[in-house]
C-alpha cells in the first residue's frame, strides 16, 4: 500500500533536490553576475546564437511574460542584443553581444563544479540527465493522456 508519509513522496524528494541544486547554482553563478534563469538563457544562446524569442522560450519552457524581463536584464547588462525583425515587427531576434560571448569562457567550469557537488563523474551526470529526461517525458505523456481534449 502506498504511503502518505512525506519522506516517502517522490515529489518531496524532487522538490528538495531541486532547491538544493538551485541554491548551489546561485552561489556558483555569483562570479558571473547571473541568476539561474539568466544562466539557462545564456546556455541556450552559447549553444546556438541568434534566436527568435519565441523559439528560445519554447526550448526553455518559459512563457514570454517570464522570458522578456530576463532578456531585458541581460540586455541591460550588455550580454545580449535584441532586434525586431524587419519583415515581422512582432518577432524579436536575440543574439549574444561580444561581452556575452566572452562570458562563456568564465562559465566553462560550472558543469564540473555542479557534478562534483552532486558526487557524479561525467558518466554519472550523463546517466542522471538521461533518467531525468525519461522521467520528464513519462510524466508529460501521462499528463497529456489525462488532459481533456
Structure in words:
The protein is mainly alpha-helical. The chain has a single domain (6-118), classed as Orthogonal Bundle (Arc Repressor Mutant, subunit A), CATH 1.10.10.10. The chain has helices at residues 10-28, 36-47, 53-60, 64-76, 98-107, 110-118, 122-146, and strands at residues 51-52, 80-84, 92-96. The protein has a three-stranded antiparallel β-sheet with strand order 1-3-2. The chain is globular. 12% of the residues are buried.
CATH architecture: Orthogonal Bundle
End-to-end Cα distance, whole Å, is: 32 Å
Taken from the alpha-carbon principal axes, the silhouette is: globular
- The CATH topology, please? Arc Repressor Mutant, subunit A
Strand arrangement within the widest β-sheet reads 1-3-2
Number of helical segments with 4 or more residues: 7
Report the count of strand segments.
3
* Low-pLDDT stretches: none
Q: Identify the quaternary structure here.
A: single chain
How large, in whole angstroms, is the Cα Rg? Answer: 18 Å
| Structural class by secondary-structure content | mainly alpha
Helix content: 55-70%
Amino acid at each position: 500500500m502506498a504511503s502518505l508519509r512525506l519522506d516517502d513522496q517522490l515529489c518531496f524528494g524532487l522538490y528538495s533536490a531541486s532547491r538544493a541544486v538551485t541554491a548551489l547554482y546561485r552561489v556558483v553563478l555569483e562570479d558571473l553576475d547571473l541568476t539561474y534563469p539568466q544562466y539557462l538563457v545564456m546556455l541556450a544562446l552559447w549553444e546556438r546564437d541568434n534566436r527568435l524569442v519565441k523559439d528560445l522560450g519554447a526550448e526553455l519552457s518559459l512563457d514570454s511574460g517570464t522570458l522578456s524581463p530576463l532578456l531585458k536584464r541581460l540586455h541591460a547588462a550588455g550580454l545580449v542584443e535584441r532586434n525586431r525583425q524587419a519583415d515581422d515587427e512582432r518577432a524579436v531576434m536575440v543574439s549574444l553581444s561580444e561581452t556575452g560571448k566572452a562570458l562563456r569562457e568564465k562559465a566553462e567550469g560550472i558543469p564540473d563544479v555542479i557534478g562534483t557537488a552532486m558526487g557524479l563523474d561525467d558518466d554519472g551526470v550523463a546517466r542522471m540527465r538521461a533518467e531525468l529526461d525519461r522521467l520528464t517525458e513519462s510524466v508529460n505523456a501521462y499528463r497529456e493522456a489525462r488532459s481533456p481534449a
